[in-house]
Amino acid sequence: MGIGWGLNEEVIKDPTTGINLNDNLIDYRWLTMNDIGPIDYHLVEGGLGLGPYGTSGIGECVGASSHGVMMNAIYNAIGKHVDDFPATPQKILKALGKI
Questions:
Q1: 21, 14 contact by CB (below 8 A)
Q2: Of 25, 31, 27, which Cα lies nearest the Cα of 8?
Q3: How far apart are CA 9 and CA 75, in angstroms?
Q4: What is the pLDDT of residues 37-87, one digit of tens each?
Q5: Distance of CA 66 to CAs 2, 23, 24, 69, Å?
Q6: How big is the chain by its Cα radius of gyration, in Å?
Q7: Which end of the chain has the smaller Cβ count within 10 Å, N or C?
Q8: Phi/psi-derived region of residue 44, left when phi > 0, alpha when psi is between -120 and 50, beta in every other case
């Protein structure tokens, strides 16, 4: 989810009216399983939670940090900052002065 927010998903508004131009499931672009490679994940069981049987919840907190991680990776790769999400290929080419 964080990868989609940082690299692909964007709400596009009409600058004059402020109306969303892609507020439906056809025009809004999000990543699917075909757009992402294999994901390697690890569950670490610690038993430190306050829930039943010592469990703790996991969730979407990793999505909050992935934007910054991706922007730093882009900067490390091309030496230019892209400060606007999503970091589309057009924005990267613009930062490189190719557009």
A1: yes
A2: 31
A3: 20
A4: 787 877 776 666 676 776 666 666 666 778 888 889 999 999 999 988 889
A5: 5, 24, 25, 5
A6: 18
A7: C
A8: beta
Give the whole-angstrom CA distance, residue 27 versus residue 46: 42
Q: Can the peptide bond before residue 15 be classed as cis, meaning omega within 30 degrees of 0?
A: no
Nearest 5°: the CA angle 84, 20, 63 is 45
For position 47, what pLDDT does the model report? Answer: 61
Name the one residue in this structure whose structure tokens are 């699917």: 32
Q: Is the pLDDT of residue 8 over 90?
A: no
Quote helix, strand, coil % in the chain, to nearest 5: 35, 0, 65
User: Average pLDDT in the 11-24 region?
Assistant: 93
Q: Which is higher by pLDDT, 11 or 56?
A: 11
